Amino acid sequence: MQPLDLSVVQTAIKWLNQQQTVWLCSVASTFGSSPRAPGSLMVANQAGEVVGSLSGGCVEEDFIERIKQGEFSQRCTVLQYGGADNARTGVQLPCDGVLQVLVEQLTPSPEAIDHLQIFQRALRGETAQTRRVDTATGNATFIAGRATGPKVEYQADNGTIAIKISPVARLIIAGVSPVAVACADFAVALGFEVIVCDPRAEVAGSIVNPEVTFEPILPSLFIAQADNSHTATAVVALTHDPRIDDLAMIEAVRTPAFYIGVMGSQRTSANRAERLRRSGGLNDEQVARIQMPIGLALGSKTPAEIALAVMADVVRVLRGRPRDGL
C-alpha cells in the first residue's frame, strides 16, 4: 500500500506535467478534534479533483467550491476552519475543533516540479528534509532535517511554517514471539508500516494481521540490506533468543533508525551490552543507541502489556519527547 502523502505529491507532479495549476494543502495546526494530524497533505486541481484529505467531507467540499469561485489565487494562504470562522465558512468541526491549513498555489514550471521531486524523495526515505514556507511570499525551501520531533512548527509571529518531510514510520520486528505479535498489531493501529522477520517456517503462521509484512529471513540479514531502514525506522527485538536479538542489534546500530531496542531484564541487558562490546565489536556510542531494557517502565507483565510499553516508547522518541517529560 502506497502512503497517502506520497500519492498526493506524485499526483501534484503529474498534474503540473499536464500543465494544470494545483493547490497543495498542508495541515498546519489543529485544536480539539481533528481526523488528520499536522503535516497531512491534500492536493486539488481546478476541475475539483482531490487526492488526500484535510479533515473529511465538509472541509474538502468547501475548499473545492472556493477554488471554483476563484479564491486562493495568491501563492500562499493560511486558511482556518472552525473557531471564529464557523459563521463565515459554514463549516462546523466536531467538538469545537480548529483546523489551520497552509494552501500553496503551484503553477506549471520546471522549478515547481523540481521542488516536488525533492519532496517525493524525502517521503520515500532517501533523505530527511524540513520544508520551510514563508507565508508572506510563498517561497519554500528545503533544509536537512530529522524524522523525529514535532511534525510542524508554525511560527505565526514571523509567518513561517516548517514541516518535517519523512516517510511513513516503519517498524522492523526481529523474530516472532507473543510479544512481537502483539507489538505488530499495536503498530499497525498506530499507522506504522510493520515488517516482521524470522527464518523459522514454523512461526510464520503466527502473523495473521494482513497489514503486517512477514519476511522469512534472519532479521540481521534483512536489517543489513540497503534501503530497508531509514530515519523513520524503529528496530525492535523481542524474542529473548540472543542468536536473533544480538545479531539484529549489531546490524541495527549501523543504520539511521531513530529507535533501536531489545527486550530483557536489567541483568540480561547488562550482560547483552557486555556481549555486544566483546563479541559484536560495538563501541560505547553504538551500545548507547540501544534501548535496553526496551520500553517504558509500566510494570508490564503480559505480552500485550509489554508490547504497549514498547510502542509507547517508540512513539515517545518519534515525537521527540524525553522520558522525564512524560
Automatic annotation (TrEMBL):
<dbReference type="InterPro" id="IPR027051">
    <property type="entry name" value="XdhC_Rossmann_dom"/>
</dbReference>
<feature type="domain" description="XdhC Rossmann">
    <location>
        <begin position="171"/>
        <end position="314"/>
    </location>
</feature>
<protein>
    <submittedName>
        <fullName>XdhC family protein</fullName>
    </submittedName>
</protein>
<feature type="domain" description="XdhC- CoxI">
    <location>
        <begin position="15"/>
        <end position="81"/>
    </location>
</feature>
<dbReference type="Pfam" id="PF02625">
    <property type="entry name" value="XdhC_CoxI"/>
</dbReference>
<dbReference type="InterPro" id="IPR052698">
    <property type="entry name" value="MoCofactor_Util/Proc"/>
</dbReference>
<dbReference type="Pfam" id="PF13478">
    <property type="entry name" value="XdhC_C"/>
</dbReference>
<dbReference type="InterPro" id="IPR003777">
    <property type="entry name" value="XdhC_CoxI"/>
</dbReference>
